[in-house]
Amino acid sequence: MTEVRRARHAVTAIFLLNGLLFGSWAARIPAIRDRLALSDGELGIALAFLPIGAIVAMPLAGALAARVGSRRATRLAYALACLTAGVVALAPSLPALAALALALGVAMGSLDVSMNVHGVTVERRYGRPILSGFHAAFSLGGLAGAALGAVAAAAGVDVRVHLGVVAAASAAIGLTWSRRFLPGSADAAAAQDPVFVRPPRRLLPLGALAFACLLIEGASADWSGVYIKTDLGAGAGFAALGFTAFSVTMTVGRLFGDRLVARAGSVRLVRAGGLVAAVGFGAALAVSTPAAALVGFACLGAGMASIIPIVFRAAGQVDGIASGVSLSAVSSIGYLGFVAGPPAIGGLAEIVGLPAALAVLVALAAAVAALAPTTARAEVAPATVAPEPVAA
To answer: pTM for this structure?
Structure first.
């Protein structure tokens, strides 16, 4: 097995385990709330510290990945993610939970940047698109973590035990596999190169793409069930299928994303994805039935599936700036969309109603299609040094 194949498998494992950690944590949030007897408002305050930590950490993580190499930065961030995910449920009070949520956000935000930097580096060595497959692994890990959390909750497993065991097992597996990463010299900046620089303006369109895509994802997670249940009159069980439809089509789309990029090219794939999402979800809003809504959210997931991997690939190929720095800038802008989008949709819904507010997602998907040419750099050139034969 060649060095680059080993690195590919290791990066896939880290993406998968990161998704498993996050999915496990998200599934047990209700148990953490009940254990501390928090109100919804108090829980919301504590959870707000997670995205704050992520946004603050992302630029620092990018600079660290550029300075010491993404290998060391990813392994450090992953170890911190396992540690914080394993102890967050031990919080004895609201202030402690907020502090641990902040630490978890720092770890997850840092890991998101550094593992994507290493993924881009491995992809360059590989000589063909593989980044979407990494993101598919994260999605699969998230689904597995959520399912495991549901099983643990149904079985009455204490949340502290559940998250502690998941984190310890993930640490043992992930830190072992990550030894197969490429060496730090593969993407570390030269000692004299600056790592704290103002991102160039040419990154802004890529940031806008990430912002739109992650806003759509966040809004689908937070508002799909409410829209289907409250506005369309479906039962709670059927309403829950809205985000499920989005997640399944996004995961499947990412599984095939690398092949589609290789065949159709980044620009055509982004344009087609934006149009599928805009037309499919727009038609669903117009029809206004529960079944149509499921199809609409499925179209959103399928359309957005390959956007983020393509955007990160393009950001990692901007000349004159370390990939860690450029990826952290684009990730931070995108994460703002994920965090700020759902509350903005809710505020707009108070004024014009939720169906009209969700029409913003149609406009954003159309904007994604219009911005497709900005991803023209997201093509993987053949490896400069002929690689050994690799398996599909």
So the answer is: 0.84
AA letter at 362: V
Query: Would you say 53 and 105 are in contact if contact means Cβ atoms under 8 Å apart?
Result: yes
Q: Which of 242, 238, 237, 244 is nearest to 224 (CA)?
A: 242
Which residue has tokens 């829209």?
A: 227
- CB environment 198-233: b (16+ within 10 A), e (fewer): ebeebbebbbbbbbbbbbbbbbbbebbbbbbbebbe
The pLDDT, as a whole number, for residue 20 is: 94
State how far the Cα of 157 lies from the Cα of 43, in Å rounded to an integer: 21
- Indicate the residue type of 16: L
Contact 22, 108 (CB under 8 A): yes
* CB-CB contact of 281 with 361 (8 Å): yes
Q: List, for residues 178-196, the tens digit of each pLDDT value.
A: 999 999 887 766 554 555 5
Q: What is the residue-wise DSSP string for 11-67?
A: HHHHHHHHHHHHHHHHHTHHHHHHHHT--HHHHHHHHHHHHHHHHHHHHHHHHHHHH
Query: pLDDT-derived band of residue 33, with 50, 70 and 90 as boundaries?
Result: confident
